[in-house]
Amino acid sequence: MGFMDEVRKAGKEIKRAFNDILSAPFVKEMCDTCANMYRLGWDERNGGNISYMLDEKEVGEYLDLNNVIRTIPLMGVNAAEFDCTPLVGKIFIVTGTGKYFKNVKDDPETNLGIVRIAPANKGVELLWGFKDGGRTTSEFPTHMMCHMARLKVDPENRVIMHSHPTHTLAMNYVHELDEKSFSHTLWEMCTECIVVFPEGVGILPWMLCGTNEIGEATARKMRDFRLVVWAMHGIYGAGKTMDETFGLIETVEKAAQIYMLTAHLPRINTINDEDMKKLVELFGVEYRKDFLG
Question: Is 179 an annotated catalytic residue?
């Protein structure tokens, strides 16, 4: 056997050592979640984005972590001023800029990427995906800032999710954008709300998206809230798992839908503050006491 034959044989053996990346649970989760968010009308066209921090050992079962396809600079941020040191070496699966959620499930390798945060603010190292030359969502720096903020609060946080839920957006136009008032109204709409997001919902005024400023403002809110509304734009959610994060946004959207269906009608019944206190006591959850009463 010649030298090149040995090389080809070794290459085949290395390739066989890895599982099929498309069968990875984290790829399937991203595909299913994107499909659900598009189906629900939360992510029209290329609206919305998700980043999911992965376990290095698990990713290593599917990819050669030493094989960096290319390095991708971050969009919408001055690298010299953006300190992402706590995330260096962390691996994420993330949606791509300009990519449509409706296409993710049929073509994950084009619409998703698995990236590792490079040292010295040099962007991200592409380990898989974005096969058409694509890059991470333009809001990935905002995601990174939010990940860093949430990891200080909850070391198990792994997911940041941004979407444009219809009724939550509609509520922005007819309800005062005050965190206490907005959260209280949502809590009143469904019995489960104060239990699902007992800290309430943070709110930012309209700001230019894809910038350092909105990323920093969102990250500051994420110190106190897992949900942050971007006024007249959408919502950010954070959680330990894809299901938890999706469920947070889903619950807010359901409450906002009920509000929009009833806001123009006389209010005959409601869940009062005393009833909400009984709920949080029953489930043993801490809540924003200053948002009641």
Answer: no
